[in-house]
Amino acid sequence: MCWKCVGEGRDCKTCNSARGHTKEKKPPLELINRNSLALFKYYTFLKNYNIWPIEGGLSEQPAIFIKVIEYCDLVISKFNEIEAERETEKAKITAKQHGQKQHR
Q1: What is the DSSP string of 55-87?
Q2: Whether residue 62 is found in the same domain as residue 84
Q3: Which domain holds residue 4?
Q4: pLDDT by residue (tens digit) across 21-65?
Q5: Disulfide check for 51: which of 14, 45, 80, 103 has CB 3.0–4.6 Å away?
Q6: Both 86 and 76 in a single domain?
């Protein structure tokens, strides 16, 4: 999955370049099976309720769950970045339209 667009793929210059980034051929949701879905459920419990899948702390958790934490945090961060960019673009368009109305 491309780390730049997090699988969104729309107009992603990283996926379309020769930098070694690849897009999955299947949509991300098709790659999730029952076991991986459970890991994401545990991630939600950790973030919302501070409950680890295995009693103890970070060092007692399986390596795959640590990767899930890192991946989910990355996806959420990227999503927030994309949303902020979209809001900035909307604000620019609105300001431009407002400026054009004042000149009439």
Answers
A1: SS-GGGS-HHHHHHHHHHHHHHHHHHHHHHHHH
A2: yes
A3: 1-31
A4: 454 455 555 656 777 778 888 899 999 989 888 888 889 988 888
A5: 45
A6: yes
Taking CB atoms within 8 Å and a gap of at least 24, the contacts of 81-86 are 82/8
Mean pLDDT of all residues in 89-96 = 89
Across 63-82, average pLDDT:
85
Indicate the angle between helix axes 63-102 and 34-49, nearest 10 degrees: 70
pLDDT at 19: 42
Amino acid, single-letter form, for residue 82: I
User: Which distant-in-sequence residues (6+ apart) come within 8 Å of 21 by Cβ?
Assistant: 2, 3, 4, 14, 15
